[in-house]
């Protein structure tokens, strides 16, 4: 193989996070983060202008993952994690749904899942969702209060160890997101 072919292959692998080039140490296997998907997903979510089909598809995939995992988490989270989730719900209400507080809620929720891909995928979807969502209007006070209530319902179901209620609460959370974005019609 020529040097140029190897150099281009290494550049491609580096862009995907598969290898990491460390000057003075050589090329090593990278972390292969899923964050390389984020720009592509963000583009798909906003491509098409007024047609938000890409964003709708992104939210549907997030919902499928998060509803499924919510039931698995019921009764599995320790008290300190549940207390922190409650505190994040309170902070959401006090900060007019600060996106980073909402994101931290979902990150913390999936931090202890035994499959690290779930947290990584939700995080990547969150990046893409935030990019697309920034183009939309901010929720009003009624929507903010409902979002906080729905997040609290998720925590309550998890604290009670009720898997069905946790899935229902997460489904209601996504129904509210879809309603707010006009996807329920």
Description:
This protein is mainly alpha-helical and 185 residues long. It has 2 domains: 1-32, Arc Repressor Mutant, subunit A (Orthogonal Bundle), CATH 1.10.10.10; 34-180, Up-down Bundle (Four Helix Bundle (Hemerythrin (Met), subunit A)). It contains 8 helices and 2 strands; from the N terminus they run αββααααααα. The chain has helices at 3-15, 38-46, 53-73, 79-94, 99-110, 116-133, 141-160, 163-180, and strands at 19-22, 26-29. A two-stranded antiparallel ribbon has the order 1-2. Strand 1 and strand 2 form a beta hairpin. The protein starts with a helix and ends in a 5-residue tail after the last helix. 21% of the residues are buried.
Quick rundown:
The protein has helices at 3-15, 38-46, 53-73, 79-94, 99-110, 116-133, 141-160, 163-180; strands at residues 19-22, 26-29. It is mostly helical.
Main β-sheet description? 2 strands, antiparallel
Number of domains: 2
Q: Any guess at the CATH architecture of the largest domain?
A: Up-down Bundle
Helical residue percent band: 55-70%
What is the distance, rounded to the nearest whole angstrom, between the alpha carbons of the first and last residues?
A: 56 Å
Unreliable stretches: none
How would you name the oligomeric state of the polypeptide chains in this document? single chain
- The tally of strands reads 2
Class from secondary-structure proportions: mainly alpha
The arrangement of helices and strands along the chain is HEEHHHHHHH
Give the rounded overall mean pLDDT: 81
Rg on CA atoms, Å: 19 Å
User: What is the approximate shape?
Assistant: globular
Please name the CATH topology of the largest domain.
Answer: Four Helix Bundle (Hemerythrin (Met), subunit A)
């Amino acid at each position: 193989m020529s040097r140029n072919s190897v150099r281009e292959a290494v550049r491609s692998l580096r862009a995907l996070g598969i290898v990491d080039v460390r000057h003075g140490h050589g090329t090593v296997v990278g972390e292969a983060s899923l964050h390389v998907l984020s720009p592509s997903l963000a583009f798909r979510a906003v491509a098409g202008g007024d047609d938000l089909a890409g964003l709708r598809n992104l939210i549907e995939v997030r919902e499928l993952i998060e509803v499924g995992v919510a039931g698995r988490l019921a009764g599995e989270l320790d008290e300190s994690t549940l207390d922190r989730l409650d505190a994040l719900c309170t902070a959401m209400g006090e900060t007019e749904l600060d996106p980073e507080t909402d994101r931290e809620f979902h990150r913390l929720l999936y931090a202890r899942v035994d499959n690290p891909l779930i947290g990584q995928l939700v995080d990547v979807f969150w990046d893409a969702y935030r990019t697309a969502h920034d183009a939309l209007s901010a929720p009003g006070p009624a929507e903010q209060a409902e979002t906080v209530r729905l997040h609290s319902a998720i925590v309550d179901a998890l604290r009670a160890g009720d898997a069905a209620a946790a899935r229902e609460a997460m489904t209601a959370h996504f129904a509210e997101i879809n309603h707010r974005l006009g996807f329920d019609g």
